[in-house]
Structures are given as C-alpha cells and as structure tokens.
## 1
Amino acid sequence: MTISNHAFVRQTIEDAKPAPSSAVGFGHWLRTKLFATPKDTVLTVIALALLAYLVPPIVKWLFIDAVWTGSDRIACLTASQGGALPDGQSGACWAFVSAKLGQFVFGRYPIDERWRPILVMVTFAILLIPMLIPKAPFKRLNALALFIILPFIAFFLLIGGVFGLPKVETQLWGGLMVTLILSFFGITVSLPFGILLALGRRSNLPVIKMLCVLFIEVIRGIPLITVLFFASIMLPLFLPDGWTFDKFLRALVGVSLFSSAYMAEVIRGGLQAIPKGQYEGADSLGLNYWQKTRLIVLPQALKLVIPGIVNTFIGLFKDTSLVSIIGMFDLLGIVTLNQSDANWATPVTAMTGYIFAGFVFWIFCFGMSRYSLFMERHLDTGHKR
C-alpha cells in the first residue's frame, strides 16, 4: 500500500445546487419582511386589519355602487331623493365626470375649436417622449423644437386670430390645459433662471450677488398667492395708461418667478456640494469661468440635486391650482366651478369631482417622481470603475 503526498485537486467544477426552499420564494419574503420579529408580526397584523376594514367600503363606493352613466343628477340620487337609485345605495357619481370631462380638460374653450389644444397636446407628447429617453438621437434638435418652436406655435394656435383661426380669449381657457401650460412654462423658465440666480448668489461681484440675494429672499419670503395677486391686481395700477398685459401672461410670469427663487436655492446646494478640487482642476486646465461652470461644475451639481429639482417641479405643478385666486380656472378650479351646476347637484358630486382631480394630479406627480428615480440610477456613475 502506497501513501500519496499529493493534495487532492478537483478537475471539474461542481454543479451549482439550488437554494434551500426556505431561503427563496414568497414565503421567505413574508418571513423576512413582514414577520421577522414579534414586533413586525404585530404591526403587520394591525396593518392588515386596517386594510380589511377600510379598503372594501372604499372600493364599494368608488366602483361597485358607483354610477357610470347618466344624463343628469337623477342618475346619482336615491329614490327618496327623487332619483333612480334604490334607497341606501351610495356611490361615486362618475356620470358627472363623464358629462363634464370636456370642460375638465379644456375649460370653456369652444367645442368646435378644441382640435387646436388637442393638436398642441399631442405634439407636446411626441416631442417630450424622446427627451425623456437618455439615448434617443437628435436631442438638441428635439430640445429646440420642444422648448423654443412649440411654444410659439402653440401660442398662435391656441389664441388664434391669425391664418383664419377664430380668436379665443384666454378667459375661456381652463381645466387641465391651463394646468399643463402653467406647469410647462414655469418648469422651462424656472430651471435656467434658477441656475443663473444660484450662480449670481455665489458670484464675487457685489452688485450681482446683492441683486440675486434680494430677489431670492424677497420671493421666498412671500406666498405664491401674494405674487399672483400682485401680478394680476396691483401690477396694472403701476403701468402707464393704455398699457395692459393679459391675465394669463401675468400668471405665467408670477408662477415662473416664484418657482425660480426656490430652484435657485436647490441649485446652490448642489454647487456647494462640489469638492474644491474640481474647481482647482478646471483652473489648472486653463478654463475660463463659463467653461468651468458649463463643462465641469454644473453637470455634477445638477446630478446631485435631481431629487430637489423634481420636488420643486412637483410643487410647481400642484401650486398651479392657486391661480383660481385671480379668476382663472385650472383643473381643480373648473371641477369646483362645475359643482354648482344644478343639473348635477347631488351629495356625492363634489367628492367625486375632487377624487378625479386628485387622481389626475397624482398621476402626473407620480410620473415625475418615478422618472426622477430613473434618472438618479442612470446618472449614478460616481463610484463606477
């Protein structure tokens, strides 16, 4: 018998074994996420009990007992109230939303001319989608069309008065159309203007720095309602006789300036987070101030403050509902206005309208939030090798 002193070396790789059944699957997720400890178990049971108590009545009111079709308030009233529903049944009046959907989207824009805002919205969506795709080609041409060409075309198309189009006063605009226009214009203006304000606040030139600080602190120190009220009511009092500005234009300017002040502070936070070595490295390459800012500093700063930028955009989108204070009707305002229609006066009309408006706002805000997370992951290259 011979004894070998050579160590055993495996010549083939052993096949991978499947993970234990207790470490994978839905059961494993439940044990680790919801029932990992006694405290987690108690909280999970309480949460499930609350959901079981709250969700069925809400679903029943929103969908099961809801009225989906009808031509007037009778469809959403019970028999004792003079309606068609059996007594005791109460549900959302989606027939009201269906009947008023055109006004909720376009306001009092003439029905025969609604193809114009529809065309603008479709064009906007077609141009926006490629801008949201990081690797889409022709980004510069697309941005030029979306942010420069489209606003001018949309202005003349929506207002009319040229090329044989009937003129539609901005007083007739309303609904989701106004919300989207105010939001898009405010976002388009506030980001570049906020960048300039942030750079000006960090400037070494005393006059520029003082003016930027004054603008930011004054605007941030007053509520948006005050800005809109001043732009709509007070500003015409300071203009020469015969001078006037459209109320919608004044609202656009007020919303944009207000958002720019908050955007400036978000951008300034990103600029302050850039290490000093980045500035010194740019100086060592012989770059001037604007080259250093455009090529080195701003790209890094904007990447760091994507959550803050999108948060400002979301706040701006929701703040557009405040234009009702100056007699304009965005989505929320037009929903509130239509609740006074006697043909649809029911106990559930107001709640249904507000739920619809809230859902629309949530869809847009949630979409911006998810895209923000996508861009954060896409641009998270700081630690890649």
## 2
Amino acid sequence: MTDDTLARRLAERASQPLEPIYDLLQRIADEVLRSRPRRATLTEAHFSGLQRMLADLLRDEHAVWGMGYIAAPFAVEGKERYLAWWQRRDDRVARLRLNFDPTSIDVYDYLEMDWYQLALNGQQRVAYGPYVDYSGSDMYTITATIPVVGEDGTFLGIAGADLVVGEVERKLLEVLRGAGDDTLIVSTERRVIASNTPRWFVGSRLPAMPTVGPPDDPEAFREVADMPLGTGWVLAVAWPTHT
C-alpha cells in the first residue's frame, strides 16, 4: 500500500465514524467477561445482565440490525453452540433464536462463518460483507466482530453486530464526497463498501484488491491506503477517466 497524502487523509477520516461500532462490541465483550465467574463454570444463567444490556443498546443504535455474544463450543456449560443475540424487526427488539441441531437441514452452524473464523484465528477487528444473511437476520448486512478472550487466554467466542449497510455507506459517503476524485472503499473480500461514483456500486466485487499503477492500466489506481480502522479495508483513489 502507498502512503499518499490524499488517500491516507481520506482513509483516516472514513475510519472515524465507524470506530463507535467497535467501542460497542468491546462493551459487549467486557460484559461477557464480567459475567464469567472466577471459580465456577459459566452458564446461561450468568447472562441476565448481558441480555438486558443488549436489548437496551439495540433500541438506541439504529445503525445496527442485531448484536450480541456468540460462544465458542462449550464456553457456556452444556452448550456446544450458544448465542445471546438480539435483533430489531421494525420497531420491535427481541432475542434471536436459531436452530443448532446438527441433524437438521436448516441448522445454523456459525463456527463455519468467516466472521467467526477470522476472529478465532486472531484478527482483532473483523468486518465481513456486505452480504445477505439468509441463515440469520435475512438482512443485507456487514457483520462486525471482535474476539472475546478470557484472562487465561481462552477464546470464549465473539462479540458481534450486524450493521445496516445503508447507514455504513451514508457515513462513508460523507467523507468520500469531498474527495474531488473518484474514490471507493473495498473490503478484504474485494467487495465495494462505498463509492462516490457510479463506476462501482456497493456490493460489487473487484477482480483484485486495489493496487497503485500507471494511468494506462484500467485496473490500477492512483493512490491506495489502508484504513486505520483495522478491518483490512482499503481506500483507493482512481485515475481520472477520459471520455
């Protein structure tokens, strides 16, 4: 990645409105850790405070479809799968309940999801998508997660949130509109998160991650910078088009 002035400045500014999402996830992770008894096994009964907190947070956070804690296998006593997740439907907030029966045709196996696997494998901030979550919220979303790790280093699962793609795009466009050049933000899956030009539309997938190259290369960009958000997203400034 280059360290060009315009791309770097825009990347820093575009990261700022998304930082509160990860602050929110840290609050969830901290509550999970507070709920964990020091000399006893963690059970579902220990999460009464967490459940109340999730419901209250979701009522006030309209940029999020749902949020909660998703446990590693048997991190919660007797639960190979466990999910404390609250979701908004219109103006109603309710706990989400999914089918974890491995013999069922519609089983929801979150252990295979990229947003879980990336956190399990050490990525401190994950932002996966945009995608349609057919097996969970049925919403067009970006899933943000962070790992939840105990004081003893045990991976306990993830704290996560399903973000409203339109709200994420709106916040990023407030920055990109002032760029003066065609600019886009791309996820680690090469999905376009936001763009200030119809050259790329949200959710489309680039053939490769943006790289700097000469103006006569149709796939090259003038400037590329990592976003300091820490999710692996990059911001790219295109060469001017000639019509």
